[in-house]
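Lecture notes, unit on protein representations.

Consider one protein chain, 174 amino acids long.
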Amino acid sequence: TITGTNFFNVTSVTFGAAVATFTPVNATTLTCVTPVGSPGPVDVTVTSSTHGVGVLTSGFIYQSQATISGLSPTSAPQDGGTIITLSGTNLGTVTKVSFGATDILAGNFTIVDPSTITVPSPTGPAGTSPVTVNVSVTSPNNGTALSPTQFTFNPRPVVNNVTPSPLPASDFQA
């Protein structure tokens, strides 16, 4: 949303040199979709066919994209609760960590520093086979990043039989 005055007959909105898609709301408000840009501040320019050009110098700051470079460990029991460490860049404003379709929201993980998050693994799908999922983080300032490494939920061990059975109590040794 861009606010100002005299937004009559607006013909273009730019962020730096990039043209934005915009919708006039009224004479003081425009909504727009921010075009792709490089990290750093850019001027925001509103051009009107009847009122000239208005510029807000360094009016918008593009943030660097969040990245995940790795996670450790890359697998854990399906019961959940294993602490997973995500490494990357621009992770300081992450509000959601996702393991497949399971989201873990802020307050349920720790941002150690802008390059490290620790998060307990969620409960994985039930079953007897390993299940591998994508891991991603979402930040309102730095976008969504997908880990290059997937995470695997390992099934619980299954005990089917014990041999010999039954064993007389006299055969136990202390």
